[in-house]
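Researcher: We're teaching a course module on how sequence relates to structure. For the next exercise, students receive a sequence and then see the predicted structure as tokens, so they can try to spot secondary structure elements on their own. Here is the exercise chain.
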Amino acid sequence: MMAVSDSSNYVLNLYALAPALTALGLLLVGSAVLVRERVSRVSVALFFVQLAVAVWLGGLAAMYCSANAALALWWARFHFLGIPAISPAIYSFSVIVMGLYPRRRWLVWINWLLAALFSAAALGSDALLAGVYRFWWGYYPRYGWLGVPFLLFFFGVALINLRDYWIAYRTASAGTQRARLRLLLIGFSIAYLGAVDYLPCYGFELYPFGYLPVAICLSLMAVTIQRYRLVDIVPAFAANEIIATMADPLAVCDAEGRVRVVNSALCATLGYRESELLGKPIDGLAHHDAASSERLRALLQRETVRDEEMSFGSRAGEAVAVSVSISHLRDRRRESLGAVVIARDIRERKLAEHELQQAKAAAEAANRSKSEFLANMSHEIRTPMNVIMGMTDMALDTALAPEPREYLEIVKASANSLLGVINDILDFSRMEAGKLSVEAQPFGLRGSVTEALKTVTVPAQAKGLLLNATFAPELPEVVVGDAGRLGQVLLNLVGNAIKFTDRGEIAVCVGIAQDGAGGEPVADTSAGNSQPGITLHFAVRDSGIGIAADKLEAIFEPFEQGDGSTTRTYGGTGLGLSICRRLVELMGGRIWAESTVGEGSTFYFTARLGLANESAAPTAPS
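Model: And here is the predicted structure for the students to work with:
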């Protein structure tokens, strides 16, 4: 390939100019036809004809310019990629234009197969291309013993092609098709005169002027395409084909509302024969009841109808669900000539929607049953668990030897852990059932937060962690809300912080949200009145293992944790944070987290609480 691309192996030869320009013109005309005919099958067939001839002429031009016999032979083998393809390409184009392709398909493929075999012989052996001659105009191919069978193939296909054109021309009626066939017959007859270029392949020193007949044929084709195009597509033909082949049922009615045109899809959908529908009132297509017929008549009065669902009646008396679209036909004076009714069959869609609704109802029922089961089981387990914990506490209050005391303390710790899991499941089942709620009672803010944190002081000290709580000085003493639920959120967040922190400190900060310091009224839906409110901001910061950035949203989903391995290393159900999010939302706030792996995490949440008189008696946190 390096020798082929090396410009020093070529010489300037004016004899190469004509075939090269002809090849270029063929490619340009073929591309223009593809665009003009919108890449129709016949335009693609013509393009293959012009491409094959362009490869032939382009290869000849390159041979003429070759400076040595070896390079000329390479181009001779290249141009034989086009020569054998000329005959089957012309024949394919011709049978498509004449409408003979369905009957001649087998012959077309035989031609292409033989062409491929001749091209392979030229590329892989000396049987077809034995070498090159050196004439006064340049190098030229020299045929071997397989040249004669190839020429018989070429001229045989040419004669069959011209014979078919002649028969089609003689039998065609006067008009566009006959004129088109006449010009194509003349053009290809002239083009085949270019076969004189085969004479030099056997040593005859006759200058190959085959590009001249090809150029003349090219001009005739351009005239044919410009005047007559390649196929007959008229509006009536196109409309009939569209109606006959469209998948949706269609009917056309006149101004009196009588059916004038139906397609096969409508007949197949409703089970009628075409003759049974033509001339009948269009509203007779509706289902066999007065309401459906009246609705179709009303739709026909509207200017445009798109996707209106209704029922048509089948011949068997069944209701066929359809989506109707209607467009009116109007004359130049905009007076209605009739209407086109397209009725898309939507029975499968309706069946799928019904099955989806049933599946949704079944899933919702199963979900309710699951939530009720979880709630019932949680209660059933919680009762004996409280007895176990109570009896364990009573046993620990007695005089015990060190070893039994250690065993009972382990039992108590495990029972507390199990009770936490049960409480999470109970709250989750309530949350799914939509029964999770918050109260609105006055309570002391600092005291409630401090009391809640006391319950986790011992486990924090056991791990050597420092637990701090800071309160903004402008915080009110008494607020109105659910102290128990607020403490539950804090305990969950602080408990997680202790669980995932091995050293350092855990800090709880309580302040007023920057955008919530006002005293605007907040609706109290439980009491039916309004009261001043405040938005509090809570932060729980730890120095633990941290959470990956792509998990900061997922951890608030049920059964999700920052890392799947944490379930085995640290335990937990993955429900705590999802319950916290729901509780925070019930308190009119939101919850989010910031974290760096290996450095720690900070969980934030806000809560909208009411303001109460300082003299109001706060309730004890539950």
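Model: If you want an answer key for the exercise: The radius of gyration is 45 Å. The longest strand covers residues 529-541.
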